[in-house]
Amino acid sequence: MGSATTTPVPAAPAPLTPLTSAPLTPTLHLLSRATEAAVYTGDVRRLREAARLADRLGVVPPGTLSGLVAAVDGRYEDARDLLQTAAGRGGPGGDPTVLIHAGIAALLLGDHTRAATATVRAVASARARGTPVTVAQAMEFRAYADFWTGRPRAGEATAADALWQAHATGQDNGACHLQAALAMFAALTADADVCRERAATARSYALAHGLGLPAALARWALAFLDLSSGRYAAAATRLRALAAFGPGHGHRAIRHLATPHYVEAAVRTGDTRVARVAHADYHRWASAVRSPDDLALSARCRALLAPGEEAVDHYRTALDLHAHGTRDFERARTELLFGSALRRLRRRTEARDRLHSALEAFDSFGAPHCAAQARTELRALGTPAAAAPTAPDNPTARLTAQQLLVARMAAEGATNREIAARLALSPRTIDHHLRGVFTRLGIRSRIELVRLLAESGEGGSC
């Protein structure tokens, strides 16, 4: 890679070798790995070096590489076109690395359904070709796709399985990324202890090894935990570093993830100067990629930054756009914020409808902190809110994905230390999880746990 910084780019390069879904040549394989390394570290200089090297060698680099270079340079329309080309290479039976890059590109474009398809195919292709190292990586991005397409429990279970596989195949860097992803899931389900433990583990390793992406994702998880718990000043401080600009201000891939939540936290703390600048850049990206979800979140930001009655039309635009997207959790967040704004404007009937809709969604996602915020708003309207639903016909539905995974392993006879080693958590955290499992299921022993899981059909191998 180092030679690419000093070798001039030819004025008329040789005919380019296309990157298709066929097996990669050694050159393209190494360029793909260089791209992934630069993405994970957040090293913009290395991204550009890899792009120049591909040009010098006369090959078309992975679309994620060219697309990210264009995005970093602020050429958002070029980035969109390059990423769309990469995302279009997610057909069945392709090379798993090409399929992973297709999934990454689709995620960056906000096309979460296409990302889910590409990453599921990448897992299947990697398993069929006997490349377990690639399986864990593909499962990581599948977990992100599951998260954004409204399947947080499936995503968390996928990430936990991928973490075990990453450890089993000696992928310490991959395990770090997955720790950060699991911190994100724990933030959503309000499992504060697990969120902080996983985020601390991920950030400690990431900062020691120069991995910008998992460090930024772990920071976002902690920020979202703060935001959903009402600690707005702390959330704003964390998110400002991720949504701001320049070296040392977070990872490009996380900036657009962080910006809508930063705007919310900034508005709640009354300091919106930097948030307005961050939103302007986010809106330019959303307009370029034309993702309904990103455009909806940009409209939500506009509503939050607008005074009084002016916000209402922006919220309606956001919800119209959400109807064409897949990020149902963010749609519920928009309804919560809209309902709160309507309550303050004394539009009680519509506020009640929006808040009830948000509450129902948060309960279905297993997001208790967000559900608590919706209940607080309903109480401020003088409207009783139903308690969180239970599932008497299937008691295991009361468990988070993490709790269910721990319960299955305990039922198979694993000790707390063995479970902790496999899930990369402390034995104390596993003990906390099991006590929570016993409480939610109304049982007192592992023998009862084995029986209950068998009766509910959850007793399969982990």
Automatic annotation (TrEMBL):
<dbReference type="InterPro" id="IPR039420">
    <property type="entry name" value="WalR-like"/>
</dbReference>
<protein>
    <submittedName>
        <fullName>Putative transcriptional activator</fullName>
    </submittedName>
</protein>
<dbReference type="Pfam" id="PF00196">
    <property type="entry name" value="GerE"/>
</dbReference>
<dbReference type="GO" id="GO:0006355">
    <property type="term" value="P:regulation of DNA-templated transcription"/>
</dbReference>
<feature type="region of interest" description="Disordered">
    <location>
        <begin position="1"/>
        <end position="20"/>
    </location>
</feature>
<dbReference type="InterPro" id="IPR036388">
    <property type="entry name" value="WH-like_DNA-bd_sf"/>
</dbReference>
<dbReference type="InterPro" id="IPR000792">
    <property type="entry name" value="Tscrpt_reg_LuxR_C"/>
</dbReference>
<feature type="domain" description="HTH luxR-type">
    <location>
        <begin position="392"/>
        <end position="457"/>
    </location>
</feature>
<dbReference type="GO" id="GO:0003677">
    <property type="term" value="F:DNA binding"/>
</dbReference>
<dbReference type="InterPro" id="IPR016032">
    <property type="entry name" value="Sig_transdc_resp-reg_C-effctor"/>
</dbReference>
<keyword id="KW-0238">DNA-binding</keyword>
